[in-house]
Design brief:
The chain is an alpha+beta fold and 362 residues long. 44% of the residues lie in helices and 14% in strands. Among the domains are: 116 residues, Orthogonal Bundle (Endonuclease III, domain 1), CATH 1.10.340.30; 120 residues, Nucleoside Triphosphate Pyrophosphohydrolase (Alpha-Beta Complex), CATH 3.90.79. The longest helix has 16 residues. It starts with a helix and ends with a helix.
Length: 362
Amino acid sequence: MFLLSFFNYIIDNPLVKQKFLNSLFSWYSFNKRDLPFRHTVNPYYIWLSEIILQQTRVAQGLPYYEKFVNLFPTIIHLAQAEEKDVLNAWQGLGYYSRARNLHFTAKFVVNELNSKFPTSYAELIKLKGIGDYTASAIASFSSKEVVPVLDGNVYRFMSRMYGIETPINTPKAIKEFKIVLNELIDHSNPDIFNQAIIEFGALHCIPKSPDCENCPFLENCYSFSKNRVKDFPVKLKKKKSVNRFLNFYLLNEEDSFYILKRESDAIWKNLYEFPNKESEELFDNEKISVSLSSGVSLRQVVGPFKHILSHQNIQAKLFICEINDRNVLQDNWIKVDSKTLENYPIHRLMEKMIHNTEKLVK
């Protein structure tokens, strides 16, 4: 019903689309941010920026983009880097699967595509870690392919503008919103159209308290006319988060301590951390004494720490221990000190624990 009404509106009012484009491009020319990746058509740099900025604010992601460009100026440099170094450069951004996919795809492009990064949507969508939005962004920004982008900013703007009540976290949404965007996109300047519609959602049609009174689209905005701006976009409720309890051990040996590579868990895969045990609740001093070998003695307990992920609520404690018998050490444990630890990528919870035990790990 919505799509039929939308197309009738466009057909019956041939100047509507042009008016929309004029308003959007005019707003963008006066309000766009000066970002380094907007001054290039190099698909490698555009790809870096898009992967880094997924689920990351521009202010936070920009230093990482500049770091990656300096450390890995070409896709060959990135492909030849050790995964540990890529994860280390990524440290602090979270969602580390993005970094692992970034490295995997770089190696694939170098080894299988003769180091030539694709610029067409059809080729890009085949690469690991690249979905519809990223493929559309790279294709339109690097080669002006007429493919509209659809991210959270665009969902919010379009749903409010046209009163689209399809939940944006459902498969149906991407098809419906793409139909609307394919009708609106400027075929002469798809790159500018995509940059502009993202920017408008990011800076003006923001999630809370958008500046509707000064909106260039106020006259034709469905949600404003119905006093329903807060109702859009529509989302289905998320799954309930899982509670997890992790007990970490800082095992001191003179001026050093031990870490290991996390391999079995989906979260923090291939990052480094203190040895640990998961439990149904956090260990208390009595339980930790039972869990520890006689070759280790408990010295101090730090925490608890809380760490929230998208679908997990993690609580953790750090048990600082002295090693009395080296037979307790395991083959996959790595001996480090506070300086050599900098060579290993660690997750945010590890950063929190280390920050609270700086004097103990120096």
